[in-house]
Structures are given as structure tokens and as C-alpha cells.
Write a structure and sequence with these properties.
Keywords: Aminotransferase, Pyridoxal phosphate, Transferase. The protein has 11 helices and 14 strands. It is α/β, with parallel strands linked by helices. The structure holds pyridoxal-5'-phosphate (PLP).
């Protein structure tokens, strides 16, 4: 039954205040500790967080950087991507994936997605490889890994780098391996709404190769290993101590939060099954961390409006695939070129999924979706 109390409920797509309240003592203490130190750029808090992240991911190197976008930029720079090179990626992702390629003067080459997982369709990569292709940049979208076996095999055959955009997939597994540790470099974002979110911008690059690790480390401080001596032209791309200390504190809770997200997702799965919406599909061998729980329906816009009227916030990731963005008009793509991505952009809707969401709130979301489809 829908009670008056539930009717007045506002359900956000996520609620960072609830998370903060649950760990406020730990966070406040560590923030005060950093303030007392008055040492803000890199330093021991960053190093200690990097060690824990390397350990968590099972990567040899974990390098804290200023954002997920800079993680991508630094990884591409470390692979020597430059003007005129081509990098193959997906158009169904956050802008930064392709934006970082373009910022280096390289060309993003978009390959359509698999309709089941929304990740790059590996069967379509081979025909996109040209003599100018230097790297593959798969994205582990919404929290589940792309088909890495096929991607790594293709890279090996063609002599290409693999950079994983793992911004949405921290802690996700693919056939026993962690997101971000399978390619030459793995890029993570600590944007506040990510599964491991900072209280500002932050990111991280993982690598296993010694040379790659050292290069990324130098590139994030203007290409310098010794202060004021520059071997490369790098960027200011450092993680700061305050964010590192906060992230380190939150990292201890990450697996528990991921588990809660999975429980929330399973509950949606069970109760939305049979309704005329496409539910998330998990590829064999994948462990999903549900950065987003995304359903799809041709009636998406009406459903979104209905839920919004009921106080339920939903989000469209992403309304315009990157090959049709205005800024990429120079690449020459037109509507219809990548139909699976375009259809996804018209039909996807992310439901509220965060570790602290209550059963009562979830029941209300489910009830309202049911209500929408039975009324129509
Ligand atoms: C969030 C995100 C990024 C960029 O991360 P920022 O920290 O916001 O710069 C890159 N790629 C994907 C897929 C993302 O979701």
C-alpha cells in the first residue's frame, strides 16, 4: 500500500550526506590531522593511499592524480599518443574518455557497443583498426568490465596499447582479474559521486610495467623526477593530501558498499523482472559493482517524467553519444553511424542505486515503475 508518508518521499539518485554521516567521525578526524600537518600536495598521505590502492587493485603501481580525466590524459601521454594517432574507444561513455584523446591531437575512433552490456562491441574493433591506430581505450561502463580477453588479444596481434577507463568500475572483476589491471594502464576517478568518491576532484592510474609506472609518476609533476629538472613535458596532475586521506578512510568501506549496491541491484532485478523494461545484463565472468543500475525502454522519457512527478530522481547516462557531440563534428560522424549507441542514448535510465538506499525507498521506486506501465 502507498501511504501518505511514502507519497511525500523524495528519493535522490544518490545521497552523499547519508554516507558522510555514517563515517563522519573517521573523516573529520583525518581531515583535522591533515590540517595540522599543513602539507597538502603529494607527501605521505598520498603515498600511503597509493600503497593501499596498489594492494586493493593488485597492481604494481598506483599513482594518485588530479582527476579521472587527468588519469586518462597521463596514461595516453605515457603511451606516447600524439597528433595524428588514432585511439579506438566507445561513443557511449562520459565525455572525458574521448576528450582526453582529442586534447592530445589524436583522433578518437568510435566503435559501436554491445546492446546487452553497453560496453564496446569487440566484434567490431578489427575493422576500425588502421595503420594509425596506437591504442584501444575500452570503458568498463556502469561498473562491469568490457570483454578484455578479446581486447587484449587484438592489441597483442596489432601491437597496440590498452588503456582501461575504469572510472566507473573500481573493485569490479573480470575472470578473476580486477578492472584497471589488465591493460598497460588503468584509469580511475574519485569524482564525489563515483563508488569511491573524494570531497573534490581526484583520480588514479594503475600500471604493472616499471617504465610505464615511472613515466606516469614523472608526467604528473611536469615530467620531472628531480625538482626543477625536466625530462619530459608533463602536466600538473597531482592528487592532494586532503583527498588522499579522505579516500584512504573511505577505501576501508568500499567492499562493503559494493556488496550493498549488489544487494540493491538484485532486489531491483527480482521485482522489475516481467515488466517491459530491459534490465542490466551481467556478462559471464564479470562481477558488477553497480556504479549505475540502468534499465532501458522506448518509453524512457515518459517513465522518467512519471518518476520525477513522484519525487524519484533518475538520470540519463548518456543522452548524446560522443560521435554526435558538436565538438566532434570534425570527425565526420552522422546519425545512424553507430545505431546501437544511439538507441541506448534514447532508451537508458539510471535508477537510484547507492549503498544507503532503504528497502522502503526501493519498494516505492518499483511500485511507481509498475504503476507507469499498468496505467499506459
Ligand atoms: C567520471 C568519469 C571520467 C572522468 O573522471 P573525472 O574525475 O570526473 O575527471 C572518465 N571516464 C568515465 C567513464 C567516467 O565515468
Amino acid at each position: 500500500m502507498i501511504t501518505a508518508e511514502i507519497l511525500s518521499m523524495k528519493i535522490p539518485s544518490q545521497d552523499l550526506k547519508r554516507q558522510y554521516k555514517s563515517i563522519q567521525n573517521e573523516i573529520d578526524a583525518v581531515v583535522l590531522e591533515v590540517l595540522a600537518q599543513q602539507s597538502f600536495i603529494l607527501g605521505p598521505y598520498v603515498e600511503s593511499f597509493e600503497n593501499s590502492m596498489a594492494n586493493y587493485c593488485g597492481a604494481k603501481y598506483a599513482i594518485g592524480v588530479s582527476s579521472g580525466t587527468d588519469a586518462l590524459l597521463l596514461a595516453l601521454m605515457a603511451c606516447g599518443i600524439k597528433s595524428g594517432d588514432e585511439v579506438i574507444t566507445t561513443p557511449f561513455t562520459f565525455f572525458a574518455t574521448a576528450g582526453s584523446i582529442a586534447r592530445l591531437g589524436a583522433l578518437p575512433v568510435f566503435v559501436d557497443i554491445d546492446p546487452a552490456t553497453y560496453n564496446i562491441d569487440v566484434s567490431k574493433i578489427a575493422s576500425a583498426v588502421s595503420g594509425k591506430t596506437k591504442a584501444l581505450l575500452p570503458v568498463h561502463l556502469f561498473g562491469q568490465c568490457a570483454e578484455m580477453d578479446a581486447i587484449l588479444e587484438m592489441a597483442q596481434t596489432k601491437g597496440l596499447y590498452v588503456i582501461e577507463d575504469a572510472a566507473q568500475a573500481i573493485g569490479a572483476f573480470y575472470k578473476g582479474k580486477q578492472a584497471g589491471t589488465m591493460g598497460d594502464a588503468g584509469c580511475f576517478s574519485f569524482y564525489p559521486s563515483k563508488n569511491l568518491g573524494a570531497y573534490g576532484d581526484g583520480g588514479l592510474v594503475t600500471a604493472n610495467d616499471d617504465e610505464m609506472g615511472a613515466l606516469i609518476k614523472a608526467l604528473r609533476v611536469h615530467g620531472s623526477n628531480t625538482r626543477y629538472y625536466h625530462e619530459y613535458v608533463g602536466i600538473n596532475g597531482r592528487l592532494d593530501a586532503l583527498q588522499a586521506a579522505i579516500l584512504h578512510t573511505k577505501l576501508k568501506h568500499l567492499n562493503e558498499w559494493s556488496e550493498k549496491r549488489r544487494t540493491v541491484a538484485t532486489y531491483y532485478d527480482e521485482h522489475l523482472r516481467g515488466m517491459p523494461v530491459r534490465l542490466p545484463e551481467i556478462m559471464n565472468g564479470n562481477t558488477h559493482i553497480y556504479h549505475q543500475y540502468v534499465i532501458a525502454t522506448p518509453k524512457r522519457d515518459l517513465l522518467k517524467e512519471h518518476l520525477s512527478e513522484q519525487g524519484i530522481e533518475t538520470v540519463i547516462y548518456y543522452p548524446v553519444p560522443l560521435h554526435l557531440q558538436k565538438c566532434f563534428a570534425y570527425l565526420g560522424y552522422k546519425p545512424g553511424d553507430l545505431p546501437v549507441s544511439e538507441k541506448a542514448a534514447d532508451e537508458v535510465l539510471a535508477l537510484p542505486v547507492f549503498p544507503e538506499i532503504t528497502r522502503e525507498e526501493q519498494d516505492f521506486v518499483i511500485e511507481q515503475i509498475k504503476d507507469f506501465f499498468t496505467r499506459k
